[in-house]
Design brief:
alpha/beta
Length: 414
Amino acid sequence: MDYISCCEALFDFIDRTPTARPVQAVAEDLVAAGFDEVTAGPLDQTARGFTRAGGFLCAWRRGQADGFRLVSSHSDAPALRLKDRADLGTDPVHRLNVAPYGGAIWSSWMDRPLRVAGEVYLAGEDPFKPDRRLVDSGRAVCTTANLCIHMNGELRTGYTFKLQKDLQPLVTGSGAEGFVADFLTGWGLDPAQVLGYELDLLPAERGTFVSPDKRLMSVPRLDNGAMVYASLQAFLAAGAGAQTQVLVIFDHEEVGSGSATGAAALRLRDILEDLHQAFDTPWRDALAASFMVSADQAHGNHPNYPEKMDPGNAPALNGGPVVKCAANQSYATDGATAVVFENLCRQAGVPVQRFYLHSDLRGGATLGPILAQSLPMPVVDVGNALLAMHAPREVGGCQDQVWMQDALQAFYES
């Protein structure tokens, strides 16, 4: 696929997954491709299937040999989450009470049109299993707004934004019961029947190309929607391999992964052990025969700030997939797993780069080191180079998206 068509499809995918959890869209694509959802019972009886819970999804295509070819990614992204009793009033323009989800460049979230999407909960037949409804406004419904420059001169010289004050979005049209009730009614729900909600405010704009040759893109939630999409497309396109091919998507990476649907839980280990029941071999042998690619976006070389990058390992946009390396094991990559992934890229005709953080800076965490603790198999952390990571719109190289999908497909088929 050419990079323009590939990225237009990526824009569509991200636009139809406005919440921080695109698991529903992934599940729909898997069903369309002939995969069966398993909601109860043993997993090893299903050759092509998937299971999900909240913002977690795991899909598999069973192989004939023991072990796994596994690609992991995460689905969540920074957002402004509505608190309970979110409408703070102040007619005629209402303020919305929000909490920051994840660590964003919050100053860049000012003056942004925002859409609202997420889940609402109604009573179910089982009191421990509420009826979950996915909802989405489908358009901008509120906005953040700066104080004008004449009233805050510090905006010119450096202003510290206060999340509880500056980041409160503004909205009009709320009735007596408030903004949330208005939207529940608009979604065909009776506010009196809604027990609770988990609603995020996210950038409403669609992804777009931002260079004459369409080789750069500016898109909300490239971290990590682009890796979810790349791994899904690679998984669907891959031919059957000798080993079981696994696609897994985790929630809550941006807030530490410490949840029942995050990478720190043992949910993936339980699934893989269940799938392993089809083979009469020791579990430790299956792990030893496996390999995991942890796909989460990487930092790209910003032309305006070259001093922030390692002088010898500064990945370029449109330079190919990035192998993320760290001496302190903040990435799970080691010398051997880096070479394995680089060789697969070369065999697929895909250029590949390496990233090391500047030694005077402290980087973030990702999935690989967390997963390696519960699943001691070889792991490599990879991603595509981005600029403006955790801004409301992130900048990436369009050709990189094609190359990452090609590299992950080659990995699945290896």
